[in-house]
């Protein structure tokens, strides 16, 4: 079991058993849940899939080919077939009237399909962060989301199809995999710290973060004390400021716990690179299973590219809470242009 030293200032080192924490969190996150009780309506995505399946299958029959056949439930496809069908779905899906869906509606439908496969069918694929197999799907979705613009009513109300809760429900956010852990840190830094461009995210280094005892921390033995994640950005809207993200009441959604696990699962860098200059966003190691007991989940050979970070931004800019954070930053900038 790997033990993580918690970085502190003028305090004894606190040790955290990350693997034990991870087992507890993953066990809690995998407790059976009914999709009927969730805010994200999986049925919308599944209905759109069935309509598209019916249309493509009919078109294939009329043309005398088998290529267009798609089963009415995506769970009937293996991983490679699913990846191909999802890319086609994103490009071809239409409303029953024949009109195109809004960009964020296409994303919502895909989240519903992800939730259906993960929650209702027990499938492990995360096709939003599934590596090379789902590249064409992610590329197609990014093309759709490129045309997304926030909708605001005349009275100033922000209209968003997707909320943060939906991402938690379909396991895009959380400790479910090396990919979702990394994506969640990216999401938190975008929402709470004001990193709103791919360039700002790409410039992050590990040395800009520290774990420190939270104000009023009760103990120093790792059992009862609480911590804060301290972040000092060097560029962008938040440059020159110091942020502290405190522990959340729900450990499944706690930025401090997420960072602790991420730090523990990073590889050791050579002495010439290790330390403050270590790049922050490391790619998951696709050669590993990334089980809770695996000491390393990420590769030191590659970082998330700026292009991939931009695709992630395209995705989360459709989320209500992110749009609210962006609008808040823009309002602050309009009052004080030197703040950004």
UniProtKB/TrEMBL annotation:
Pfam families given in the database record: DUF3504, QRICH1
Source organism, top-level taxon: Eukaryota
Residues annotated as domain QRICH1-like: 40-148
ZMYM2-like/QRICH1 C-terminal domain location: 159-317
Naturally occurring in which organism (per UniProt): Macrostomum lignano
Keywords recorded for this protein, A-Z: Isopeptide bond, Phosphoprotein, Ubl conjugation
InterPro entries, sorted: QRICH1_dom, ZMYM2-like_C, ZnF_MYMT-QRICH1
Record-linked PANTHER family: WITHOUT CHILDREN, ISOFORM B, ZINC FINGER MYM-TYPE PROTEIN
Keyword Phosphoprotein in annotation: yes
Name of this protein: DUF3504 domain-containing protein
